[in-house]
Each structure stands twice: as C-alpha cells, then as structure tokens.
C-alpha cells in the first residue's frame, strides 16, 4: 500500500519530511474520497474551508474508548458541542505538542464560543500512555482537554475507522511513533465535517470551525 511505502522512507522519525509525507497520505486519501478539498460530498451545506471538507463522508462514525477515570466514552457524550479529535502520543517530540498548543490558541480565539469545542486526544501508544500519564499530559495544555485510550487492538480498530496511519519506529532501546497529523472535527450532532491540516494556523482553523458552530 502507498501508506506503507511512505512509512518505510529513510527520513528520520518526526522529521519535517516524515511529517509532510504522513500528512500528505492522510490528506490525499481524504481529498480523493471527496473529489476535492473544498467541494462538499453531499449531505450538509457546502463549506468553504482551509482544511478538508468531510461533510457527508461515511467514515469515522464513532469510537468507544476509555477516559483516564476508566469510563467508556463515545461521540454521543459530546453531542451539542464540536468535537476536535487528534491521534498522537505523549512522548511525541513535536507534532502532538504543536497540535495541542494550536488547540489552546483556537479556544482563545473562539472567545465566548470556546466552551462549545471539546478537544479529544486519542493515544496511539497505549503501552506507555497510562491513564495517569495521559491525563497529566492533556491537562498540562488545558484542563478541558480529554485524553482517551484503548488496548492495542481497540486502538488499531479506531485508527483504521478514522483512516489514521501510525507505526512504531525503533530508536535504540526504545521507539517513537510516526503518525498522521490531521485533526478531525465533528459537529454538534456528531457528524464528521472537517479535517484540519497540521500546517493550518489557529486563525484559519477558527475560520473553518465557525462555519459549523
């Protein structure tokens, strides 16, 4: 598969080159499925966005994962809010902290509408991201951010359902993880509407989000 070819490139783990490749894989796949970045795929009204319009797409319908308190969570828990979902891991040196820092900026720019956005961080490294570690990590950015996890099998199933690509990369006695870097956004009814690109500014993300608030 094309994804596997990119994951086996010689670029160092988490280098800008690998991030561009992984982001390109995910974005290219989503754009191909929709027939264009800015064109609607049917269903809700068309959007003019800086990210990828996923309105009407038939994937990423739900997840069933645990929060740090051990409660099972699903998209239904966040009805009435926009849910912004990002897949990553707490030992990520750059992509994940950059995405979550941008999410903090997005909430500030939303002003009074900030409480209408729920940021959800799903770990692709459940072996190391224990509930305690996951909670400390997300809350270091914003107390409202929620970390979710599952066992390796559930993690893989969820990533596949969201068309997320990730893979372990050995680093001496340990490992890092290469992963795609899109942030998925669900509207207040729980339908997937947007994918925010990793390179988008917080201002451009807010422009996109306001169209579905």
TrEMBL record:
Domain Thioredoxin: 54-213
Similarity annotation: Belongs to the SCO1/2 family.
Phylogenetic lineage: Bacteria, Pseudomonadati, Pseudomonadota, Gammaproteobacteria, Lysobacterales
Record keywords, A-Z: Copper, Disulfide bond, Membrane, Metal-binding, Transmembrane, Transmembrane helix
The protein, known as: AhpC/TSA family protein
Membrane-spanning intervals of the chain: 21-40
Pfam family, one: SCO1-SenC
Organism from which the protein derives: Lysobacter antibioticus
Presence of keyword Membrane: yes
